[in-house]
Amino acid sequence: MTSWCNVDPVTRHDDGPDGKALSLRDEQKRLTRRRLIDGALAAFERKGYASTTIDDIVAEANASRATFYLHFKSKAEVVLVVTETLGRRWRELFVELTSGGRLSRAQLHVWLDGMVQNYETNRASLDAMDQAAAIEPEVAAVRLASIRETVGVMADSIRRWYGDDEDDARIRAALLLAQMDRFLQLWIVRGLPFERERAVAMLADQWLSVLAPRGRSRSRT
After folding, report:
1. pTM of the prediction?
2. 24-71 belongs to which CATH class?
3. How would you label 20-31 residue by residue, b for 16+ Cβ within 10 Å and e otherwise?
4. Domain boundaries, the chain
């Protein structure tokens, strides 16, 4: 069965919201929920999101329909959980990247290589998100909101580093995110083959070209 995401879909720690250890019953619920998500992703990968039924999901998860509906209202809700969780993790990674000073090529290379690993780990989740977003408006809206927040994180740092105005910083941030995501989607999710070291190095060069300091006298039309 496909293992989804390196972040737990219920909580990122084994503790409850009050910091106390989860009870045995709550831990069992958490594990069941995670098993259902893994089962859903395995079914989506095998049959595609649109063709997958609840029966397919519970068969993969070795669970019952009743158990599924105790945790989720629909297969779309499963993807929403994945989308929201990955969105939070992605924003955390961008905060880590941009919390210091201007990025060196070495720092950027290491971070981008880590993002490649994240796409590899979460390939089935990302594929399911793409398929679901095409037919589920709620999934598409949550995904767009997550992207908007991540663009904001990047833009704030670009303004701090280079003094760009808000529009310029947001455009640069959106270009970087779109370029990286589409390239990694083609490479990791869709399977277009590239040599890893060369691909990461070229992606780092492209990022640095977009992040290069701009002259203050740029003309606008």
Report:
1. 0.81
2. mainly alpha
3. eebeeeeeeebe
4. 24-71, 75-211
Class of domain 75-211: mainly alpha
44-90 confidence digits (pLDDT tens):
999 999 999 999 999 999 999 999 999 999 999 999 999 999 999 98
Q: For the segment 134-157, what is each residue's pLDDT rounded down to a tens digit?
A: 999 999 999 999 999 999 999 999
- The full 3-state SS of the chain, as one line of letters, equals CCCCCCCCCCCCCCECCCCCECCHHHHHHHHHHHHHHHHHHHHHHHHCCCCCCHHHHHHHHCCCHHHHHHHCCCHHHHHHHHHHHHHHHHHHHHHHHHCCCCCCHHHHHHHHHHHHHHHHHCHHHHHHHHHHHHHCHHHHHHHHHHHHHHHHHHHHHHHHHHCCCHHHHHHHHHHHHHHHHHHHHHHHHCCCCCCHHHHHHHHHHHHHHHHCCCCCCCCCC
Find the length of the chain: 221
